[in-house]
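hey so u asked for the seq, here:
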Amino acid sequence: MKIILLGTPGGGKGTQAKLICDYLKIPHISTGDIFRSKVKDGDALALEIEDYTQKGKLVPDYITISLIEDRLKKEDCANGFLLDGFPRNENQAEALDLILNKQNEHIDRVFLIDVPEAAILDRLAGRRVCPKCGESYHIKYNPPKIEGKCDICGTDLVHRSDDQEEIILDRLAIYKETTKPILDFYNEKGILHKIKGDDGINDIFNRIRKILDADG
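ran it, structure tokens below
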């Protein structure tokens, strides 16, 4: 099954992505992970991506689309995948359709994790991430076992610069402006599902699972 997971920054879609991928046994393809991996290359493209992400800006479409297309060609995507953080606008959605159409494939389901703005600000203010492996925590809702340390690799956790309130509000404004055309795009295809996202993690996942099981 080929799935897109949409949601506001800090809306919890990363957590739901992992649960869905474990349930369906498909790879979790996150643009954030792809960008972090690419930055390690240290080349000109890596520096360009890093400059955008450190300022809380979106990486340009031409870079993002190219990296996603390369990732979808890998063997582990043959039986499906989940896209997290892509597409971010209508141009990317149309480009994804073209990429998949070349292989006579299509997106099966699009889930939107819908969370109120006030809840987003609360979540991101307390979010801490591992700069080494990308694992994410929350000081109140999902704290690490050892305060300030990543459970996976033991690295010191950081409060990202783009999780500051002023930058969060800018990101939310950009998100609202660019996401509506995507929602319309997939709603017209009849594959968009809006999921109430301000409840517990398991409650949210159970709503998604019911839809997936109905497809089964």
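The helical segments are 13-24, 31-39, 44-54, 61-72, 90-101, 117-125, 165-188, 201-215. Strands lie at 2-7, 28-30, 81-84, 109-114, 127-129, 136-138, 192-196.
lmk if thats what u needed
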